Structure to design on (1032 residues):
């Protein structure tokens, strides 16, 4: 900033009474006391607001000011754009590709071949021996082939890095609430300016460094930045500093932004960080498989080397065409080339390409992938635990019925208008003041349920935002934030029109049953509190139940007048003896696409469970409407769920489809029990359950322990669980699940941070798309594996058998490298970018330990390999006679080479189906990458054959030879149809199914005690017996 003034940009400082250096002086890392003294020297937070040409109540002007003002502010204080480490250049990636062991061996082979070739040419020239082709050509050809592979690898890596950076940029760009022009607005974090007044609520991530202005019960979790586990209480006098990248764990606060981007503490740290992407489980599994295949290749290479040397040794000296050294060099180069072809480095590459391609496509389907492994894991999810509001429903809340001051209202708007003044004031205050939501140009910003109450006030002709501005004092009034345990939120405000100094009015709002339990009075039409007797309570609860059965969410509003002394009591004491003011029935329509999406999941072998905070009647009604609660299914409340023993829960878990009135802790317990994410051993169990006895309670307390859990399940395998969440307290469940799915619209920053995938539109049908893409990735890898194994078997066996038979290897080093390029990079591009189809959801999920190569795939591989191998060997041994060729001539080997390559071209198409689907051309036109790879391969093969010459040691083919080799290779297509008629099925043990076609939760039979019923459970039964389906 000082440099700006020195360069004549002092005009930018005219509007500010502080400099960037002043702000940096109160924002030093780990120097809290010095920062606090510096803030006091500047006059405190409220003086600092004015010094930054901002306003405590109005914030910056709309848009941050004029364009010039925004530019001036950015010039002086910086932009909120976090620095990122420079990406690797294409040249760096190109150089890195030479770090691969096999590539280094090839390079060494090229150098040796070139040096020996030059020496051999000079020797022949000195002895007057004729040389048609320079001996050093093969060394140059190997080098050129290696360069091509390196270029393609570097280009792929560079493209992948660019895609992941684009995804990261989207992931880092979140919306924040700020005050601009006196109104609440949502802007991108990148638009945030120094001087902005940010509104923070529990669960929000702090988007920049700032100082506390005002709030209630604000606490921040700064462990991500400072490493300190305890939450920090924020206040004007104690600790007023907020740090970017941390989270508000409790309460609410207004914060003045003092540092953004690189100037913030998180920005300084991030500049020093560079996160490397970890390998996904599938990549790790494929790395292991690639190593195993590589070992086979090394064995084949060693055997080929030995076979060639034995063949040379037993060849009469008069018939030998090369010296021992030349033969050893040739055998060594062929052996190395076999290793290069055998080592399937394309397997991990195929995963990378498929994941990179899929993540970009999934973003278009409203799935933002935060953790790469989640993409593939979601494909084999066996259970999805879904929230109700906003995920299954539209989150478009509307008050449709109400009970206002004791009177039933079928038209809430007209009834609210008609209320007498005393009752009307209390009801409206409860809606307008006790809320975290706001209305901006008629649109709800914040909680949609609270927004429904604001929209009701607006429809009745009131201005809820004006009511809040005049009725709620941020400095003196108190907020009790919503608690998922207590199911309520409250505010303590100055009692309107009270003559008693210090008198307060408590306004509470929350789940109907929880609130009614706290009420001893009810408001009458005149605004007076009347005693609530047992009959009144029963009538109110019956009304709640009736609305709940109609799928309405029922919210109760209550209040309590307090004297000055009573207002100082603790929270529980304050909330006793409330007066019920109103009940509102809020309708949240089911998303029209949800029933079909749920049905699709169930067809795909995925159990869908609803986990909601709504009451049991509402949850059951919605679950039936969308098809989650089916015949034989069970619905229960969280209070009944959490007191069960592990054995009791296992007994009902296969049928549990709805968990109502549940807390985030219940969701965590359910996920842990499903997937086995449990403490193992006494020490870990006691740490999770302090005060409980391992000896007597370890088998009685949820979620149980690992040893007991494994003993209750066949194979010790658990569910692959996907769980949705939007609240701060959902973090543990999102972390415990294999795939945590946070809501992009309604989700807090804490939930998003704990998640693996962000559902951008909060829609359950988008989760189904994530499953489809996950299965597509898994299948694409299997397609590539089927293709590559076929090539490997044919190439290795042909080379080895030809060496044993005393022939020159029909595929020389350059040819083998071209084959390697086809089956690795080109094959990965073609088969790794296949699009998903609806049929992917017609099968059950695979188990965690299912083999990558199925029995059906082995059938396809072995039959195709047998035909190709027979063709190569027949052409090698009988080709000269059948096609009138000179044996072991360049033309002879070109025929074998051309047949082999075109077999791979057609088999690549065959590999598009890894099952019994005979029509492998279906949908081919929808994959332009596949068509491009086929076109490139065919054109390149024609060029290599016709114009490769001495470089590739090929000879041009006549039209007749082209037709015969391509025709023989094309036979792999009808063979592909015939081989799929061979009756081979996938192993039933690979699928996560039970004998009824449902998800396998193979719990042992429960004890008699475990079968005991509970009053908080609902079972859905039919009069007839359900028919069992056969396992796949």
């Amino acid at each position: 900033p000082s440099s700006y003034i020195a360069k004549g940009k002092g005009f930018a400082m005219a509007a500010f009474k502080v400099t960037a250096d002043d702000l940096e002086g109160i924002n030093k890392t780990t120097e809290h006391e010095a920062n606090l003294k510096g803030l006091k020297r500047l006059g405190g937070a409220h003086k600092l607001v004015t010094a930054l040409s901002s306003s405590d109540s109005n914030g910056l002007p709309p848009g941050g000011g004029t364009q010039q003002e925004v530019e001036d502010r950015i010039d002086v204080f910086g932009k909120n754009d976090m620095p990122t480490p420079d990406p690797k250049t294409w040249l760096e990636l190109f150089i890195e590709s030479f770090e691969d062991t096999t590539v280094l061996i090839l390079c060494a082979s090229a150098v040796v071949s070139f040096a020996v070739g030059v020496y051999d040419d000079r020797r022949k020239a000195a002895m007057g021996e004729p040389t048609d082709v320079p001996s050093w050509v093969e060394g140059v050809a190997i080098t050129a082939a290696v360069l091509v592979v390196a270029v393609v690898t570097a280009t792929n890596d560079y493209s992948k890095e660019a895609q992941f950076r684009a995804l990261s940029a989207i992931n880092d760009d979140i919306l924040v609430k700020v005050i601009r022009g006196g109104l609440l607005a949502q802007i991108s974090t990148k638009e945030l300016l120094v001087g902005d007044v940010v509104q923070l609520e529990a669960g929000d991530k702090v988007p920049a460094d700032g100082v506390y202005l005002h709030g209630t019960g604000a606490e921040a979790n700064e462990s991500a930045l400072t490493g300190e586990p305890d939450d920090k209480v924020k206040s004007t006098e104690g600790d007023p500093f907020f740090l970017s990248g941390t989270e508000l764990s409790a309460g609410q606060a207004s914060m003045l932004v003092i540092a953004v981007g690189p100037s913030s503490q998180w920005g300084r740290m991030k500049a020093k960080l560079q996160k490397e992407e970890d390998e996904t489980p599938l990549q790790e599994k494929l790395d292991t498989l690639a190593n195993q295949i590589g070992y086979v290749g090394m064995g084949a290479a060693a055997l080929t080397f030995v076979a060639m040397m034995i063949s040379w040794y037993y060849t009469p000296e008069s018939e030998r065409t090369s010296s021992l050294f030349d033969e050893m060099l040739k055998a060594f180069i062929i052996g190395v080339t076999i290793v290069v072809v055998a080592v399937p480095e394309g397997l991990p590459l195929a995963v990378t390409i498929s994941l990179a391609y899929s993540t970009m496509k999934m973003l278009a389907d409203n799935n933002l992938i935060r953790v790469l492994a989640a993409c593939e894991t979601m494909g084999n999810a066996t259970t999805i635990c879904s929230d109700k509001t906003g995920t299954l429903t539209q989150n478009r809340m509307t008050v449709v019925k109400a009970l206002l001051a004791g009177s039933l209202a079928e038209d809430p708007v007209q009834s609210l208008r008609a209320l007498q003044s005393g009752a009307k004031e209390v009801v409206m205050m409860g809606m307008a003041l006790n809320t975290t939501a706001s209305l901006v140009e008629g649109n709800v910003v914040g909680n949609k349920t609270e927004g429904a109450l604001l929209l009701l006030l607006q429809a009745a002709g009131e201005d809820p935002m004006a009511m809040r501005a005049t009725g709620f004092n941020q400095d003196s009034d108190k907020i009790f934030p919503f608690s998922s345990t207590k199911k309520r939120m409250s505010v303590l405000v100055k009692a309107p029109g009270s003559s008693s100094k210090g008198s307060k009015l408590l306004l509470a709002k929350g789940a109907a049953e929880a609130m009614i339990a706290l009420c001893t009075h009810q408001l009458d039409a005149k605004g007076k509190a009347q005693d609530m007797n047992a009959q009144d309570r029963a009538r109110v609860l019956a009304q709640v139940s009736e609305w709940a059965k109609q799928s309405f969410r029922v919210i109760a509003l209550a209040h309590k007048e307090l004297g000055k002394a009573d207002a100082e009591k603790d929270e529980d004491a304050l909330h006793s003896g409330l007066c019920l003011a109103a009940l509102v029935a809020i309708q949240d329509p089911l998303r029209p696409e949800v029933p079909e999406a749920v049905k699709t999941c169930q067809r795909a072998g995925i159990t869908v469970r609803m986990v909601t905070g709504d009451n049991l009647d509402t949850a059951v009604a919605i679950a039936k409407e969308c098809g989650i609660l089916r015949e034989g299914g069970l619905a229960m409340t969280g209070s009944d769920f959490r007191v069960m023993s592990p054995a009791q829960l296992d007994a009902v878990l296969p049928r549990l489809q709805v968990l109502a009135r549940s807390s985030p802790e219940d969701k965590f317990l359910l996920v842990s029990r499903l997937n086995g994410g449990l403490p193992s051993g006494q020490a870990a169990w006691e740490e999770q359950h302090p005060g409980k006895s391992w000896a007597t309670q370890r088998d009685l307390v949820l979620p149980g322990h690992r040893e007991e859990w494994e003993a209750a399940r066949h194979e010790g395998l658990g569910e692959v669980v996907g769980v949705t969440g939007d609240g701060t307290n959902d973090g543990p469940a999102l972390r415990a699940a294999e795939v945590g799915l946070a809501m992009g619209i309604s989700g807090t920053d804490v939930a998003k941070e704990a998640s693996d995938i962000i559902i951008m539109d909060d829609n359950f049908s988008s989760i189904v798309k994530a499953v489809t893409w996950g299965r597509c990735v898994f299948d694409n890898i299997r397609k590539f594996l089927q293709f590559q194994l076929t090539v490997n078997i044919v190439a290795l066996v042909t080379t080895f058998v030809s060496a044993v038979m005393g022939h020159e290897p029909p595929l020389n080093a350059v040819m083998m490298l071209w084959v390697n390029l086809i089956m690795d990079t080109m094959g990965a591009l073609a088969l790794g970018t296949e699009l998903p189809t609806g049929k992917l959801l017609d099968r059950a999920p695979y188990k965690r330990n299912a083999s990558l190569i199925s029995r059906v795939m082995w059938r396809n591989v072995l039959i195709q390999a047998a035909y190709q191998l027979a063709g190569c060997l027949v052409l090698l041994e009988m080709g000269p006679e059948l096609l009138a060729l000179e044996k072991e001539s360049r033309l002879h080997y070109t025929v074998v080479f051309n047949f082999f390559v075109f077999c791979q071209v057609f088999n690549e198409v065959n590999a598009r189906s890894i099952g019994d689907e005979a029509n492998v051309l279906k949908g081919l036109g929808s994959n332009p990458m596949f068509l491009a790879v086929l076109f490139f391969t065919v054109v390149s093969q024609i060029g290599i054959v016709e114009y490769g010459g001495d470089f590739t040691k090929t000879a041009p083919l006549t039209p007749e030879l082209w037709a015969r080799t391509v025709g023989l290779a094309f036979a792999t297509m009808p063979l592909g149809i015939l081989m799929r008629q061979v009756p081979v099925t996938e192993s039933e043990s690979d699928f996560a199914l039970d004998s009824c076609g449902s998800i396998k939760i193979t719990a042992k039979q429960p004890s008699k005690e475990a079968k005991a019923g509970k009053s908080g459970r609902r079972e859905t039964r039919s009069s007839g017996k359900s028919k069992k389906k056969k396992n796949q």
